[in-house]
Design a protein that fits this description.
Blueprint: E1 19-22, E2 35-42, E3 52-61, E4 68-75, E5 82-85, E6 99-108, E7 116-125, E8 132-142
Antiparallel strand pairs: 1-8, 2-7, 3-6, 3-8, 4-5, 4-7
């Protein structure tokens, strides 16, 4: 049996309050500590049907002795629940003094709205000097 056709559309419905974006760099990691590089608060006062879909991206240059990079999406702050994680990104493109760019996606089915804050963090394995974050993108879509 064929699937039912979708009969409704969103023409004339304002969904702008469900999309949140930032491109502001908060900080760059010093040595090997996990550091918040972007932060975003979801101010939607909406019933959560499924959750919040998150997308993060960062362009960065790894500091001295860095051997791997890990990007995480977390609730609230650097100690918050992890909702997205790249794992350790290794290889020559993630070494010291090399400009790299990576992304991470996540989904949070336990968001508390309005006011849920999400952070994009970066940690450099074996980093002994400051890494430089030159660009970020962090978005949240309420579903």
């Amino acid at each position: 049996m064929p699937a039912d056709k979708i009969a409704a559309n969103v023409i004339g419905i304002d969904l702008s309050g469900m999309f949140f974006v930032t491109t502001a760099v908060v900080a760059s990691p010093a040595a090997a500590g996990e550091t918040i590089i972007a932060s975003l608060t979801v101010s939607a006062n909406a019933a959560l049907t499924s959750g919040v879909w998150l997308a993060g991206w960062a362009a960065y240059t790894v500091g001295t002795n860095g051997t791997a990079v890990q990007l995480r999406l977390r609730q609230t702050n650097v100690a918050g629940t992890v909702v997205g994680n790249t794992g350790a990104l290794t290889g020559s493109q993630h070494g010291a003094a090399i400009l790299s760019a990576d992304d991470v996606n996540g989904f949070d089915a336990a968001a508390v709205l309005p006011g849920q804050t999400y952070v994009l963090t970066m940690q450099v394995t074996a980093g002994s000097a400051v890494s430089t974050v030159s660009g970020v993108f962090l978005s949240a879509t309420v579903i």
